Amino acid sequence: MATDPDTAASDDRFVRVADRETLEADGQAVVSEDGQAIALFHHEGEVFAVDNRCPHMGFPLSRGSIEDGILTCHWHHARFELEEGDTFDIWADDVQTFPVELRDDGVYLDPDPPTDVDPATHWRNRLADGLHENLSLVMAKAIIGLDGEGRDAGTVSDSASGERSEPRADGFHTPVETAVNFGTRYREMGWGRGLTTLGCMANLYDDVGGRDKRRAMFMGVREVADETAGSAPRFQQYAFDNREVSKERLKEWFRDCVEVRDRDGAERVLLTAIGNLPREDVADILFTAATDHLYLNNGHSLDFVNTAFETVDHIGWEDHADAALASTLEQLTGATRSEELSSWRQPVDIAELVFDAHDLLPDLVAAGAGKEWKRPEWFVETLLEDDPELVIDTLTDAIREGATTEQLADAVARAATRRVAYFATNNEFNDWNTVHHTFTYANAVHRATAKTDATELYRGCLDAAMSVYLDRFLNQPRAPVPSPGESDRDPLDVREELLDCFDEQGQVNRAATLVSEHFDAGGDPADLKRTLGRGLLREDAGFHTLQNVEAGFQRFDALADDPATDELEARLALVAPARYMAAHFPTRRSAEQTFSIATRLHQGERLHEVE
Ligand code: FES
Q1: How many CB atoms are located within 10 Å of the residue 13 CB?
Q2: Alpha carbon 34 to chain centroid, angstroms
């Protein structure tokens, strides 16, 4: 609106933009200053100036209407208080206003007024708004705004070309931290699908290409908002005042509380442990309780706890361990214990086999102390046999011979990877979930062994191996995966064909062939990962698909670091998620449409002219 002329007259930022009489007669005008279109409105005897682009989707506000001090955009009818630009409709954002002065020779305005908040703060606030109201476009705009703040968006590139760019920290840390704070506080059931997706996206962040980093953050934040919407908040407990309790005592108390499904009690003990003990001891306590019973929640419980740890690692243990890890407790105290399921009891009581092996563990670990185990070539294939007693004996023998938790978890994860890579497409479609659960659980157990050397994690290996056994019929017959060979194709062409293949339904085996061919052609696995990331993040990918790709990338990295890994084994880690993706794609890509709109708005494109 018009400012005090005495103040404004002394400010040389003001520029003449319109004739007073003409504006009064016409009621409105659009002027351009420094390339920015500004709408002027004469209303109730005053002049107001606002950015002509509606902050929602860019429609010209000069084509809106004004009544009683409210400017209404005509595209989606967002309303703005005319003087300061505040919106009535949180999904639209506030519109920028400009100070106006009426002088004798015309209308003057300040085209570059000082801002109340810096852009990074504005986008952080908008991200919070988007999470609170579950507004996808607001979240997408905020993530792009945070990432692009101070950076030329034109340098960001996509996918198969392999071009890379490094985003600003605000494009990563702020979305992850904000979503963790929100999801752990406002979802009564705590850490679930949404926060696990966020953690997966944080883990994938370095592997995906330039603009896909923004898509990854959008995916994670969006899932947190979606899962939290409509939930009652979670009220966090407090640590005990007694800071002298030993690790052994806290571990015992925690396991006892989880055993009787006492979430509040378990939470107080865990918060005390986080306050008193180092990270590896907290990991010991949590992963031990997560394996006291068998394969909790189809493997999700331990997987979620592991992801919570890794998400905290991204944003800081000191500030976030308590809320994030405490929020996982429903995954332990409310979990289905697989020994309660008939599939673990009939026709073979594999639960009993596993519990018997638990009883042997102290002696096996003592026998293996000081020994060095080397995985025999036949070991992983034996874990795929149709004989649960043989599998248990194979694992317990390895422990007796000195196999570490890391070595054993890695071997089981290799077997679980094969279940996905060789999944036969003649199975029922939902059985993809079955092999997926085993795969991500086995991978999570392996990841957990890097966080604690607790020998209780051998129990996670046994669980995962029994789940591999239960999945045995899903590899009959084994799906074809090409053996390593040679190809003279350009790896870029292979990657582009792989993306094309995700555009068609049912290209599962073709995806496996292309991944293999990329290796045969000498392509860089990092480029292949970026292409898989591109294919993943443009889709409305389901929770399991997102997890599957994250686990595949982690398995590939683990295998690539191991000189003893043969070529096919490493390839299978990327064949598995590629096949999984091909089975579930294409989707409607509605989230990509929202992301695309947000990107085009950020670049200043005029959406209304091309829709
Ligand atoms: S309300 Fe203005 S563009 Fe949607």
Answers
A1: 13
A2: 39
Where does 487-589 have alpha helices with state H?
Answer: 491-501, 508-520, 525-537, 543-560, 567-584
CA 107 / ligand 1 centre spacing (Å): 27
Domain boundary among the residues 109, 132, 163 is at 109
pLDDT band at 610 (very low <50, low <70, confident <90, very high): very low
Q: Which of the listed residues 62, 75, 80 should we mutate to test ligand 1's pocket, taking the one with most ligand atoms within 8 A of CB?
A: 75
Within a domain: 365: yes
Domain for residue 39, yes or no? yes
**Is residue 611 domain-resident?**
no
Q: Is 477 exposed, middle or buried (0-12, 13-18, 19+ CB in 10 A)?
A: exposed
CB count within 10 Å of CB 492 equals 16
The answer to ipTM > 0.90 is yes
Q: Does the C-beta of 80 come closer than 6 Å to ligand 1?
A: no
Containing domain of residue 408, as a range? Answer: 338-475
Token pair listed for 448: 């957990």
Choosing from 84, 109, 134, the residue where a domain stops is 109
Structure tokens at 359: 């009883």
For the ranges 99-108, 169-178, 228-237, 318-327, the lowest mean pLDDT is seen at 169-178
Number of structural domains found in the chain: 2
Q: Where is average pLDDT lowest: 9-13, 305-309, 358-362, 369-373?
A: 9-13
109 φ, ψ to 5°? -145, 160
Give the CATH number of the domain where residue 29 resides.
Answer: 2.102.10.10
Cα of 43 vs centre of ligand 1, distance in Å, is: 21
CA of 504 to the centre of ligand 1 (A): 34
Would residue 560 count as lying in a domain? Answer: no
Question: Is-contact 91 54, C-beta < 8 A?
Answer: no
Name the least confident of 3-7, 132-136, 575-579.
Answer: 3-7
Using a 6 Å cutoff on CB, does residue 59 contact ligand 1? yes
* Residue owning the nearest CA to atom 3 of ligand 1: 57
Q: Give the per-residue pLDDT at 164.
A: 39
Instruction: Return the minimum-mean-pLDDT range out of 112-116, 165-169, 274-278, 445-449.
Output: 165-169
Q: Does ligand 1 come within 6 angstroms of the Cβ of 75?
A: yes
Pocket test for ligand 1, best of 63, 73, 135, 606 (most atoms within 8 A of CB): 73
* Ligand 1 in reach of 142 Cβ (< 6 A): no
In this structure, which residue's CA is closest to atom 4 in ligand 1? 76
